[in-house]
Task: inverse folding
């Protein structure tokens, strides 16, 4: 009794298996690239907001909570954050013909320490907005504490930036506040927000 070896068929199967492995790996890589692209599109998606009365239009992050009920034109917050919720806000204040940006900043710096614990100004500098509008940038920090004693937690250091410009008899104050630990990471969202702001 003898054995017959068929080597040609095994080589075909081995080639098919290698091709199958290669195609599987290629599909996995393409799937990962597609999901990363899809995720970045969802994370960076924005929603337009327009207030005709205030004359302001802007795009804000799609998954953030919009609030227009305060003494500001609007405010959006990232409610998915644990601890301090990253905040973007636009406020309008009437100004007299003789008032300067410095006068508005001084009034903010007088009233804020009442509501913001350990409020501390870090720097004030002149900048240009994307629309070639001169503005003043003020950086500051404060400590956010829970007012409800039953929900009390560790205090959080909050870093903030106010961009202030005067236009049409009013001061436009664009505010960005975030947990100091994630401030640099969240600032990219603020810069994107600024690029779309029109007033």
Result:
């Amino acid at each position: 009794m003898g054995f017959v070896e068929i080597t040609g068929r095994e080589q075909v199967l081995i080639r098919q298996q290698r091709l199958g492995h290669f195609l599987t790996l290629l599909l996995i890589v393409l799937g990962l690239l597609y999901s990363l692209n899809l995720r970045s599109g969802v994370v960076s998606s924005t929603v337009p907001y327009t207030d005709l009365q205030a004359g302001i239009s802007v795009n804000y992050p799609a998954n953030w909570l919009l609030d227009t009920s305060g003494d500001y034109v609007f405010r959006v917050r990232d409610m998915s954050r644990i601890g301090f919720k990253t905040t973007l806000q636009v406020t309008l204040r009437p100004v007299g013909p003789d008032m300067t940006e410095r006068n508005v900043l001084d009034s903010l710096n007088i009233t804020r320490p009442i509501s913001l614990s350990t409020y501390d100004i870090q720097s004030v500098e002149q900048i240009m907005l994307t629309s070639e509008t001169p503005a003043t940038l003020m950086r500051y920090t404060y400590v956010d504490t829970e007012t409800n004693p039953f929900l009390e937690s560790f205090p959080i250091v909050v870093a903030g930036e106010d961009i202030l410009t005067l236009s049409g008899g009013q001061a436009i104050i664009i505010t960005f506040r975030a947990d100091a630990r994630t401030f640099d990471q969240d600032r990219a969202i603020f810069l994107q927000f600024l690029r779309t702001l029109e007033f």
Observations:
- The chain has a mean pLDDT of 84.
